[in-house]
Amino acid sequence: MVRNKTANPQQITAEQLLREAMDRQEQEAKPPKQYIADEDELVMYKVRKRKEFEDVIRMQRQNVGAWCKYALWEASQQEFRRARSIFERVLHVEYQNISIWLKYVEMEMKNKFVNHARNIFDRVTQLLPRVDQFWYKYAYMEELLANYAGARGIFERWMEWEPDDNAWIQYVKFEERCKEVEKARRVMERYVNVRPTQEAFVRLCKFEEKHNNIARCRSGFEKGVELLGNELDEKFYMKFAQFEQRQKEMERAQAIYKLALDVLPKGASDELYRAYVSFEKQHGDRDAIEEVVLNKRRFIYEEAIKKNPRNYDVWFDYARLEESCGDVGRIREVYERAIANRPPVQQKRFWRRYIYLWIYYALFEELQTGDVSKARAVFDKLLLVVPHKQFSFAKIWKIYAEFEVRQLNLDRARRIFGRAIAECSKERIFLDYADLEMRLGNIDRCRKIYEKFLETHPHNPKAWSVYVDLEDSVGEVDRARGLCELAIQQERLDMPELVWKRFIDLEVSCEELERARAVWLRLLDKSNHVRVFIAYSEFEASTASSVPNAREALERGIKHFKAEQRADERAMLLEQWLKLERDLGDDAAIEAIEKRQPKRVKKRRAVQTEEGQAEAYEEYMDYVFPDDKPEQQNLKILEMAHAWKKRKLTQAAA
């Protein structure tokens, strides 16, 4: 146990430790160099080394590296018969080891034993015919020895095993080096027959073009298209087209590009499409280029639709594309296919995008083709498709009615709105219908529409406001005032403050300030909200120019909230009063109100904890008003003292 764990005053670094460890390492002992003086010493050296090697391979028979070292050592001593014997012994142990055969044959070739090397190559190619490395080396050795017939025979024996592509290509290159083009052509044809792949046909065509045999090159491409068909990718067609471009056959190249774009899958022809566009830019006209671009975009949209036929954004883009082309038949086909994909569930959020397909279809028929009957049929079918009992869309009724108005068919537009009120009954329907009649100058029809609006939505303040606006706009102030009276007498209204405000604005617009003040007072009797007091004071100060009435309204509100002990609202009214005096009052009034402004203080109050046993305290902000009497403040302190004493007694009893 180390008891003293403090740092040593003499420290040492990791670098010093590593340096000392390296310095103290003992160097590995190297065997001394031996100098052989005579033949007897050489014989003894060989015997000793052979004994060492034999001991190693006897103990580790599967150690191929030891066998190879032994054989190569014998070869270095010019004992080639012994070296061959060792290689033969190890081949009996493991004849499938490629490295043994390679070292064996390299030894023979290095020491120029050509016939021995040939014998080894013949043996290994019979035992391991699928190892291409031996065939390559054998053929290369015969070619170096200028034994071209022997090399050709080796290649022929190799080709009987139908090796991979590189072997055939090497055979062809060998024949080309021998200036035997016809033999190379026959080898290439055999290669294509044995391995009919895209790469094989491309190599065949490249070979024929290299030797200026254009007809055979073209027939090679055509044969590849005929045999492989769907197995070809875009690179084959691109090479075919580029070959025709090099031969100045632009029409053939264009036909190849179009064939490839029709045959290949749309997602696997991006490079081909770019090559085609580049070709058309160089050799085609403007219409051909645009047609290429349009076809590509059509392919993209069709693929997206196949994945999700209810992706309405894709249908919108597809329809816009066809509209830009101007082919009416195609445009109608796209719209018909799009509207056939109805949403699977009857929920409004899934139908919002779908109905715009119908709307755009109808507008296209009306504005682009001028076929009014077709557009009307589209609208009628849309109204049948939408499940109005579950939900409806006000915009489709409005757009249909506006369509009939543009056709000067007002009776039909009114019938559409009437049907919309019966089946939809949305606020937007009433407003749009009334707006139409208002533009036509039919005030009585507008009144009937608004009355129906009030019957359908009696709790909607918008219904009352627009009716009042109508009567006010035509100068029927008494009718507007009567509507306001009816509205404020409703027992249930969603936002009654809007109706009260519209009543007051009506009286102010008619310069009936006394009536407006009476409405304000009725509102104050009905509602004691702080905003009402503030708005009334602003009305008296700015609109009625009666500052005393504004002060009276604020004082009334302050007394009310003081009685209800609502300090926040009371502080808001005092702040509003101070702002009023600063704008319209004199210095004395401002000073008096400033003295009444409350102070914010931080206080504590007792709260019950979650356990329900002991009490905790929380801090909160409160207002202290100078208007409150000191006796009331002291009374509050006494109440707090009694509560504290009661709490102490309870704790002592517990």
TrEMBL record:
Predominant cellular place of this UniProt entry's protein: nucleus
Keyword Thylakoid carried by entry: no
Entry's localization field: Nucleus
Residue ranges annotated for the Pre-mRNA-splicing factor Syf1-like N-terminal HAT-repeats domain, each copy included: 52-196, 226-355
Gene Ontology CC: post-mRNA release spliceosomal complex; precatalytic spliceosome; Prp19 complex; U2-type catalytic step 2 spliceosome
Nucleus among keywords: yes
SUPFAM superfamilies cross-referenced by the UniProt entry: TPR-like (SSF48452)
Keywords: mRNA processing, mRNA splicing, Nucleus, Repeat, Spliceosome
Listed GO biological process terms: spliceosomal complex assembly
Listed Pfam families: HAT_PRP39_C (PF23241), HAT_Syf1_CNRKL1_N (PF23233)
Family: Belongs to the crooked-neck family.
Protein name: Pre-mRNA-splicing factor Syf1-like N-terminal HAT-repeats domain-containing protein
